[in-house]
User: Fold this.
Amino acid sequence: MKNNHTLIIGGGIVGASLALKLAQAKQPVTLVDASPERTAVDWADKLQQRDARVYALSLASIKLLESIGVWQKITESGRKADYTQMQVWQRDGIGELLFGEHDDKCNDSTAPELLGSMVEPAVIEYALWQCLHNPSITDYLTVIAGKKVVQMDWQGSQQGYHVTLDDNTFITAKLLVGADGRGSFVRRQAGIELDTLDYKQTAICCAIQTEKPHKATARQAMLPTGTLALLPLADITDEDKFNPQHWQSIVWTLPRNQALNYLTESPRMIADKLAAASSYELGAIRQIESIASFPLTAQQANSYISDNLVLIGDAAHGVHPLAGQGLNLGMLDVQVLSEQLLHDFARSGGTLWGANQTLRLYERLRRPHNSLMMHSFSALNWLFAGELAQLRPIQQIRNEGMYRVSKIKPLMRLFTKKASGV
Assistant:
């Protein structure tokens, strides 16, 4: 097959976003996705159903998606739920954090500012699929679906990689990008080791319809068993739109054995336990759908780069979901890597692509930030959940900390800005 500046392994949201960004900049790129190709009919069938999972897209992620034409298609679909407030509270404690709260003293004539938007994975993926098939970039982008990489051979810094697929075809590329998720084949084949942390927790996720509307607010209860997130979902049926803002995505973190026991119970029993755990913040739960679960771990690659190779997204790092920042960190990887690649290419007069100095700068810009986020989320999880978190001194520190932080408006605005990623 043809030579490329870049070969991206992994056609998820992060990998596809980078492929689109580079192709739109007129850089030759091939995207290999192990998932089979979907037709427009396949997408229509998939999007008829509500997904219990949702991504909390930050303003920075929205800005990136907008720059490549994807956000416009998401907006046209109507399948997004914007949120203007984030509410965080702890059970049996004092203090509540309300991010994005409208300050009437200063801005009584303005509407609440957008903090982000909740979007189902398939909605983002479909918008990306549409943009990837835009005729304007076909000269620069090749998408190979339903194929897996079986071998990677480094040919030296000048040639890059020779990659073999499971149908015995091969691709050569100056730069190989691993965007193939937490179990990254690219990372393992490159011999990059991984630091992991098992929280011994499992998250139950589902979609629920609540008695009270969510009012464009993302909520998170910090419970002794773990965090409970209630995230707004888009209204997709005529009935939903007639009585809007009652559907939400749930991520309920529990000790692993407790979660597995709950999953053996009836949906109605799970719904009742969930409503009680939230202290009936939005009243009773009327419906519950698409109950699933996943174990919680954090991980960080010891290096994001090697010669002619770079890792992005979950292939490089994975964090606890308590702040909903996993995808947003991956999208920041895309933004920084694409900027550095294109900047150095232009600065060198079109001779440098994926050079070691470019990749090292990307790693310096992203790995410390991602490490800080990972350890911060781990510390928050430790502070609120588990046996040590229930000791009286720890409870007093939490209570006093949340109360004082909630009273410092400049600090609250700083936290809001950091969460937005801009």
Summary: The CA atoms of residues 268 and 288 lie 8 Å apart. The longest helix spans residues 356-384.
